[in-house]
Specification:
347 residues; alpha/beta; TIM Barrel; Type Iii Antifreeze Protein Isoform Hplc 12; eight-stranded parallel β-sheet; 12 helices
Length: 347
């Protein structure tokens, strides 16, 4: 288990739901604060930002290397600098966003993309750090975030097993003692068919860390399925309305969907229970109403047992239904009224 801001996260607790704002503020601090309000109202446990400036994540250059491929569903042909300029959360917004989250009792943290972002987030007393999928190969950044002593969450989109192991090793060697790794398909939006959630137990075994999902698929189905495979953290992008547009709106949850995710993920976790077979305590009453063999009309001593005077009915109390072939043809040892359970001493 790990702990973020006093909240314990692990298999023995309901899933920890992280609402990712990303660029869904659409360049408006007012909208950003409204997203915080909506995340809190929907029951999310944490709000996550991304902390970078366009010039701390790329450079103002052009050419094929600095453009998203033309075939991309959302950002085809976009220049990286212009895209990040549009999507970034201004650094001066961080403090009011963190303050608003704290007013709601909502944990607020971020994904830093360079050392200056870590410096800012340390000043804001961020309770944890997230390493984005594309930064999993930036081991110096991972070591820096880990050296703060804060819990670290690492997304593994696009990463090989070797890259994941290197990132985890770097984090732990730099002092990280509370680590979670998230399965992620780093395409936007992502197809549920590419989620490969059956890899979650493998990811847990490889890293020895708590596991979860950073999910970019539509809806909440993939996230709920992940709970059954061991996910104890769920990160989803959120927006006030997909119809409002925005860089991430197409694969983000609206407030009612976020509320459903929080409620249903806890329900999914509750349903996991224990690896046992047999009646549940809540089924005790139901056991009384299993079928068994009963006398279904008044009979006299010496009368033959037939399929007309003995049948399998509810409730329990008589011989099991499979005994019918053994009892037909035998004779009653005494009178029996309709509704008498058939027992061996009666025939």
């Amino acid at each position: 288990m790990i702990s973020i801001g006093g909240r314990t996260i692990g298999a023995e607790r309901p899933p920890f739901v992280i609402a990712e704002m990303s660029g869904n503020h659409n360049g408006s601090l007012e909208r950003a604060l409204a997203i915080v309000d909506a995340a809190a109202a929907g029951g999310a446990h944490a709000l996550k930002l991304q902390t970078y400036r366009p010039d701390t994540i790329t450079i103002d250059a052009d050419g094929p290397a600095f453009r998203v491929g033309d075939g991309h569903e959302l950002w085809g042909g976009a220049n990286l600098y212009r895209l990040f300029e549009r999507a970034h959360t201004p650094w001066e917004w961080h403090e009011p966003i963190f303050d608003r989250a704290r007013e709601h009792g909502l944990l607020a943290f971020s994904a830093p993309f360079d050392p200056t972002a870590v410096e800012l987030l340390e000043k804001l007393d961020a309770p944890a750090y997230k390493i984005a999928s594309s930064e999993i190969v930036d081991l110096p950044l991972i070591r820096l975030a880990a050296s703060t002593g804060k819990p670290l969450i690492i997304s593994t989109g696009m990463a090989t097993a070797g890259e994941i192991e290197a990132a985890v090793t770097a984090a732990r060697q730099a002092g990280c003692t509370q680590l979670a790794v998230l399965s992620c398909t780093a395409s936007y939006p992502a197809s549920p068919a590419e989620s490969n959630l059956r890899s979650l137990p493998l990811l847990a075994a490889l890293t020895g860390a708590e596991v979860g999902v950073s999910d970019h698929t539509p809806g909440i189905g993939a996230a709920l399925a992940a709970v059954a495979l061991g996910a104890c953290l769920i990160e989803k992008h959120v927006t006030l309305s997909r119809a409002d547009g925005g860089v991430d709106a197409a694969f983000s949850l609206e407030p009612p969907e976020l509320a459903a995710l929080v409620e249903e993920s806890e329900r999914a976790w509750q349903s996991l229970g224990s690896p046992v077979l047999g009646p549940r305590e809540s089924e005790r009453e139901g056991l009384r109403f299993r079928r068994s063999l009963y006398v279904v009309r008044d009979v006299r001593a010496g009368e033959a047992v037939t399929r007309d005077n003995v049948r399998s009915i509810r409730p329990a109390g008589g011989l099991l239904p499979d005994a019918i072939d053994e009892v037909v043809g035998r004779r009653f040892t005494r009178d029996a009224m309709l509704g008498t359970p058939l027992t061996w001493d009666l025939i």
